Amino acid sequence: MQYHIEGMDCASCVGKIETALARLPGVSDIQLNFATQKLELSLAPDAKTQSGDIEKAIKSLGFGVSSSSNSKTLTGSDKSLESQQWWQTIKGKQVVGLGLLMSAAYVLSLIFSDFGVWAFAVAVIIGVFPFARKALVLAKLGSVFSIEMLMSVAAIGALIIGEAEEAAAVVFLFSVGELLESVAADRARAGIKALASLVPKTAILLDAQGKQRIVAATSLQVDDPVLVRPGDSVAADGIIVQGTSSLNDSPITGESVPVTKTIGDEVFAGSINVDGVLQVRVEKTAADNTIARIIDLVEQAQSSKAPTARFIEKFSRYYTPAVMAIAALIIVVPPLVMGGEWATWLYRGLALLLIACPCALVLSTPAAIASGLAVGARRGLLIKGGSALETIGQVNTVAFDKTGTLTEGEPHVTDVIAFRQDVSSIQGQDFQNHHDILALFASVESGSSHPLAKAIVSHAETANVVVPVASNASATAGKAVHGTINGRTLAIGSPVYAAERSRISPEQQAQIEVLQNEGKTVSVLFDEQSRTAMGLIALRDELREDAADGVAQLKAMGVHSVMLTGDNHLTAQALARDLDIEWQAELLPEDKLRLLNDMKADCKIAMVGDGINDAPALATAHVGIAMGGGTDVAIETADIALLKSRVVDVAHLIALSRATMTNIHQNVFFALGLKGLFLITTILGVTGLWIAVMADAGATVLVTLNALRLLRFKGFKH
After folding, report:
1. How far is residue 99's CA from residue 305's CA, in Å, rounded to a whole number?
2. Which candidate, 702, 716, 24, places its Cα nearest to that of 363?
3. In the structure, what pLDDT confidence band is assigned to residue 492 with cuts at 50, 70 and 90?
4. Is there a contact between 542 and 380 (Cβ–Cβ < 8 Å)?
5. Can 401 be counted among the known catalytic residues?
6. Annotated active-site residue in 401, 541, 639, 649
7. Which domains does the chain have, with CATH numbers?
8. Quick one: pLDDT at residue 221?
9. Of 136, 132, 160, which is closest to residue 346 (Cα–Cα)?
10. What is the pLDDT of residue 487?
């Protein structure tokens, strides 16, 4: 069952609701996300508890509740995405009402001084009633040590000892503090709202006759054709079937430079079409598009508690009763042991009760974690939970896969060399330059689906080379491809295979070795009839543009990097030399696992891979990072997915994690420091009830605002 909860101001509200629901028969698997205000639970089919009982229990605690469906819609109409102005909320109206009541009591006390105390007493009784009622309900449902109970006891106690004016100030300031917490919590939830608002509400659907019709974006189905005009946002994930245009993917990936896309290219919902008219075939519905998945991941991440958050929650369970016990001792011990005045020490004990609220302490970690996750999502760094965000900052070794991680993942032709000058006899034209040998390579490889063959053919097309048609195409599995051009039988194979089937001179062999030492894969073209080597092509999976910068940034941060690859030693050595990185080559998947387990014994390690063939290694490391590009497999495999597939983003992750942990430490210091300070001043009689309320509300607001500072985190290098 799923519900939307309204009115949660801080993480302690989650505990109140969870405690109350856990007491209902048949209710289990309770998961309440403070950031998104979403509640999920399981209800046994034969349970006495009904849906109405669940809603009644939540409403009795003072929270709003409504059922929500399993399907996600991102049109912005979802209740979880709506927000009211502060004066329109229940707490806003309560503050305004109490303010008017306090003002009236103050005016009456000036005009009728003898009745001033009674005027403030009435204000206290009216103002404290909703809090006292909620405190009793919370106590009945298992949350005895709630802030409402502490405040109600303190206010009523102050009224009893004749401090009516100060008791009224306590109720009013507490209400203001609750309102400020609500406003700050709403600001903290802005990340999800901003993501959801990226998808347009409408789309231009094309019917079978090509006529345009405006429909709701949520109504689009797979294979629907939609029109995207210049300046429009793409309404759904899909494939371009007509047109070419530049698209701004920054809302999705954080990449600020528009990318040119054409027929066959993928587009994401929320991307902005810059200049051309596109016709797009819908590939995913609104509930399953990229932004929906990102939102779902962020929501899951925010509901996943970091180790520090779990520790703080356990600590707060003992903290509040301990402070209440200290307050009781403050009230009782000085009068009995030291002959102090009961009224004085009762007043100080009541003030101490207000300091016992753990809201600021409980909020210190999840508020910072939520901000860190939101910043990461905005930058194309999808972090699956507070635990991953916390752990990545502690990593001191990063292991990189090579192919598709440090490199582009696609081989590119780097060198084309002709050994003979009589290529024209085969091509039927005068010899010009290396384009002729490239044409022969492309001709023989044109029938192959091997990645190297595709790279050669693609290179020939880019160079506008005229490729002759080969006949009798065949392949020797794992060794060579063959084809007949103008009556000559040619073959392309590795240098070892070519040396067995043709004559390669020492000079040609030297050229081959130089290229191989540069980490390049060499293919040799030879004539099978005359056994003569005709030329070679060298290919290499080139390093990503930012790979060297990414490794350098990690080194500057004190993080060690190592490359693990199944490729040969020569290729690995050449790439590692360019990156200034340690390396291990010719590794099978089980070899990578063994190395990672060995390294885990001595250090905190992160593994960066493509999210598919590196799945075991990603799962074994303390943190698995997928170079995702937004694909389903990459997003679902690891703890973190890098939508922009940039190596420097690994350093960005560590910088964000460290900034988040620093923020958490600051928050804990603020929360405990303020409470510790006012605990001492209250015992000494320097500060009173209203200062205690301000200290509590101030600490909560201060912690929230400090966490929101992370949303402006500028620690990313470009």
Report:
1. 38
2. 702
3. very high
4. no
5. yes
6. 401
7. 2-71 (3.30.70.100), 202-288 (2.70.150.10), 412-540 (3.40.1110.10)
8. 94
9. 160
10. 86
